[in-house]
Structure formats: C-alpha cells, structure tokens
Design brief:
about 220 residues; alpha/beta; five-stranded parallel sheet; three-stranded antiparallel sheet
C-alpha cells in the first residue's frame, strides 16, 4: 500500500499515520521526520535545508522533493509507505507522481481526514504544554488535577503561540487555500477516499482501514 494522508491541523493525522503504518507494516514517512533525519545526519540535503532554516527562510520545494525522493528509495519503503505532510499542494503532488513513475510505482490511495473547523479550534486551542517536561494536557479532554499545573511533573502549564485561536484559524485558512486544489486533484485521479475523523481514535482507525482496503 502506497498512500498519502491529508487533513487539516488537529485532524489527528500524526496519530492515525502511526497506527495505520503499524497495522499495514509499512513505514510512516513524514516531512518532519525526513528533515530531522537529514539535518541530524549531516547529509548534503540536510546541510542545504539547515542553511535555509538558520536564516529563517522556508526550505524550497526542490530540497524537500529531493529528500522525499531519497526516503522513498530506501529499502523499508519498497513494499509501501504512508506519507504524512507531503504533498501539500498540487505542484508537489505532480512531483510525487514523477518520483513514483521513475521508480515504476504509483499511489494506491489518498486518505482525507475530515473534521469540522470549529472542532479543530476546540481541539487545538484547549492544549496546554508544560514548560518543564513538555507534557501536553487539554483543558476539556485531559484537564490537569490542579489548574495550570502539569500532572506529570508539577511544572507550569502554558498555551503555546501556535495553539492560540487566532493562529489556528490562520493555519486553517492556509490549509484551505493549499489543500482544496490538492483534494480536487486527487479526486480527479480517482485516488481520494474521505472519512470523518471525529470520535474515538479506534473508531477513526477502523474507518480509515476500511477506506484503504477498498482502494487496495
């Protein structure tokens, strides 16, 4: 199974990608993991990416694309993979098609996790992180025993900048602008399957597995 996972911030992509990859016995390939591996490993691509990041600039598509090409060419990805965080736009989707064409492969499915925007705001804006140990709690779903105090270590809980409501709404706006055309692109290729990503984690996983089986 060669699949791409798409969905807005807060849809649970990371959680579902981890579970599904394990269930399908394929690697979860995320751009974040690829960047970290290349930078920490001191690869030529990692050095290029770090130079941009150190200047506060976005890493250009050609460097990201090269990292993805390299990762998908590794041995553990030969029997399949689950891509999370790439592609983010139609240009990257076309590049991914070219990468797979060169390898004699193709995508089997693109799984879209759909979540109402207000639900995303509620999920993300309620998160509180510990300044001391990094433990994350939620004011509604996992409230601390004592307000403002981390259950794990007793440190101070705070709201990260990217968990503030105005930041989340901006991220959702960017997602809509970039991803609506991407979803349409994959729908036109006959690869898109969409599921509701609300409810218990195991229920979302069951829906995802059923949707992917239908495409396998």
């Amino acid at each position: 199974m060669r699949a791409v996972l798409v969905g807005p911030p807060g849809a649970g992509k990371g959680t579902q990608a981890q579970i599904l990859a394990s269930e399908l016995s394929i690697p979860k390939v995320s751009t974040g993991d690829i960047f970290r591996a290349n930078v920490s490993g001191g690869t030529e691509l990692g050095k290029q990416a770090k130079a941009y990041m150190d200047r506060g600039d976005l890493v250009p598509d050609e460097v990201t694309n090269a990292m993805v090409r390299d990762r998908l060419g590794q041995q553990d990805a030969q029997s399949g993979f689950l891509l999370d965080g790439f592609p983010r736009n139609v240009a990257q989707a076309e590049t991914l098609n070219k990468i797979l064409d060169d390898m004699g492969e193709r995508l089997d499915a693109v799984l879209e996790l759909k979540v109402d925007e207000e639900e995303v705001v509620k999920r993300l804006s309620g998160r509180r992180s510990c300044r001391n140990c990094g433990h994350v709690q939620h004011v509604l779903y996992d409230p601390p025993k004592k307000e403002g105090v981390c259950d794990a270590c007793g440190g101070e809980l705070f709201q990260r900048e990217d968990d503030r409501e105005e930041t989340i709404r901006h991220r959702l706006e960017v997602y809509r602008e970039q991803t609506a055309p991407l979803v349409s692109f994959y729908e036109g290729e006959g690869l898109l399957v969409s599921i509701q990503a609300t409810g218990a984690v195991e229920d979302v996983t069951a829906r995802a597995e059923e949707a992917l089986r239908a495409k396998d």
